[in-house]
Design goal:
- This protein is an alpha+beta fold and 530 residues long.
- Helix content is 27%, strand content 24%.
- The protein is built from 17 helices and 24 strands.
- The strands form six sheets. Strands 1, 4, 11, 12, 13, 14, 15, 16, 17, 18, 19 and 20 form a twelve-stranded mixed sheet that branches.
- The longest helix is centred in the last third of the chain and has 18 residues, at 475-492.
Length: 530
């Protein structure tokens, strides 16, 4: 029997599509009138002979940073390719209800201390090897390895035993009930246990997914080709996928307008208007599956070890202006990490800190600080730079002068993982769009056991652990625990949330069926070109 025991919360679905309107005359000014569309040179044949999905074609996906093999299992800034090459055990719908993928069904023990998974018996890896329960055991142990830097490592570590019942049934034994186990199942790609060493160097990515790795060109991107052994009948429809690195925002947008790229999730929010006005492009927003921009604080460096100083920073930032000017209005100004789809969301949490520079100055003065100086690390991209510059301006009005430190995305991610941040930094975080406990037991900035801010608190650990192990508790109890986590995050202010962002998908009008999972993995199983 299939059972979704650990997720009693209702989760409303929120996804909207904005059909582009207006003319694309700006192409003339960009010198792109002679560009050839790269949709595909191959024919697109209707699957059923009618007007439905068609086989064939290559989709070019414009990305702004390259695949980083060493972070394959960490849910890094570039995870789009994961679900193209690999599968997961289950997949969530918009309401966080898990559905079968490599696992066909599951059942919990009454005490919540084990779960039995029944697995597909018709799956092979790209090299032809059959998928079995041993691969799931390896995938879990792989995430338990500290070297993998997996942000759901704590949840993986709660699985303390395995009982195989043949090749396609597996019992996972748990150290304690776990509320976010299906978050792990959605997050955990199932790699080939024999070639994982080659996977983390980018030499070989042997999965069970709909596409096979043809080539990785460092700095240029990934070339993928159709997996003819894929277990989903008739899928994928596409022949190939190209993930092409285009770091400059203007060039990326030009690529979409010209038809050289058919899909991207990296158009800066303030530039969405320019693509929305193109009749050949479709803008789709996912406000349940992206993340949030935040200001991080290193709590081991004086005076930021003082909670009052951190709270002053939280009052000093004009979130509404950041949303409007830096992100083009796409998102939700919020002092808390939760999107509206989260059971932890409340309007009181969202507005806990509002823009009040006078109050910020009073708090700094009460703490004995009136003129502070600090470095502010940020990712060297147009959108991240715009947010950092807005934070810099706001903090200066409150008496905190910061010096910007633009940093390469891969280096910034490694600093985040290794807790090597300066006094302040601005980045994006995920994990607020799934079970509320996952944020505080998994995400690098929030992890109760080891976070980037180096914040430690027995009370924080206690509350997070209660929320994490309350599987089977009623909805009211789970909401109460989620609120206690929110209260501590807002009071301690070691992570100062600014804007909750939804993923914004920009696609050519000829592409249909592209979706994202909750961890920003691109799913093209049902995608096709017309």
């Amino acid at each position: 029997m299939t059972e979704s025991y650990p997720s009693p919360f209702p989760h409303p679905s929120r996804r909207g599509t904005l059909r582009a309107a207006g003319a694309g005359a700006l192409l003339l000014g960009l010198g792109l009138t002679g560009c050839r569309s790269a949709v595909s040179a191959s024919s697109h044949r209707p699957v059923d002979g009618g007007g439905g999905p068609r086989r064939g074609g290559t989709v070019n996906v414009a990305i702004n940073s390259d695949f980083t093999p060493s972070l394959l299992f960490s849910q890094a800034t570039q995870s789009l390719q994961n679900r193209l090459l690999f599968n997961t055990l289950t997949r969530y719908d918009d309401d966080l209800k898990p559905h079968p993928e490599l696992a066909t069904s599951w059942s919990y023990a009454k005490d919540g201390r084990s779960i039995t998974l029944r697995l597909r018996d018709d799956v092979t890896y790209h090299d032809g090897r059959r998928f079995t329960a041993d691969d799931v055991v390896f995938a879990i142990r792989n995430l338990q390895d500290p070297q993998r830097a997996a942000q759901l490592r704590a949840t993986a570590a709660a699985i303390t035993g395995f009982e195989k019942r043949g090749d396609h049934e597996l019992v996972l034994k748990l150290a304690h009930p776990v509320t976010n186990l299906f978050d792990l199942f959605e997050f955990m790609i199932i790699p080939d246990r024999h070639t994982v060493g080659q996977a983390v160097t980018g030499k070989r990515l042997n999965g069970t997914g709909p596409f096979r790795l043809k080539k990785w060109s460092p700095g240029a991107g990934l070339s993928l080709t159709r997996n003819d052994r894929y277990f989903q009948p008739g899928r994928p429809y596409l022949d190939a996928v190209e993930l092409r690195v285009i770091p400059q925002a203007e060039a990326l947008i030009s690529s979409l307008r010209s038809g050289q790229s058919q899909l991207s999730f990296q158009v800066p929010g303030k530039s969405i208007r320019t693509v929305r006005d193109n009749p050949d492009l479709v803008v789709t927003t996912y406000d349940t599956g992206a993340g949030a921009s935040y200001l991080g604080v290193n709590t081991t460096l004086a005076p930021f070890d003082d909670k009052t100083v951190r709270q002053a920073l939280a009052w000093a930032v004009d979130r509404d202006r950041i949303l409007k000017q830096s992100l083009g209005g796409y998102g939700l100004a919020s002092a808390a990490p939760w999107p509206k789809s989260s059971p932890a969301y409340t309007e009181a949490n969202r507005t806990h800190y509002t823009y009040d520079p006078a109050k910020a100055r009073r708090l700094l003065k009460s703490a004995g600080h009136s003129n502070l100086e600090a470095p502010l690390l940020h990712i060297n991209s147009p959108e991240s730079t715009a947010i950092a510059e807005a934070v810099q301006y706001d903090l200066q009005q409150a008496g905190v002068r910061v010096t910007l430190q633009p940093t390469d995305p891969a280096i910034a991610q490694k600093k985040l993982i290794s807790q090597d941040m300066p006094a302040l930094w601005t980045m994006d975080h995920a994990f607020a769009q799934i079970h509320p406990a996952t944020l505080a037991v998994s995400a690098y900035p929030f992890n109760e056991a080891k976070n980037t801010s180096k914040f430690r608190s027995e009370q924080y650990t206690k509350v997070v652990r209660e929320a994490w192990t309350a599987a089977g508790a009623g909805t009211a109890r789970q909401h109460a625990l989620a609120q206690r986590v929110s209260d501590l995050l807002l009071d301690e202010a070691f992570i100062i949330d600014l804007v909750v962002q939804g993923a914004v998908q920009v696609a050519g009008g000829k592409l249909h069926g592209a979706t994202l999972n909750k961890f920003f993995y691109l799913n093209l199983d049902d995608a096709y070109l017309v």
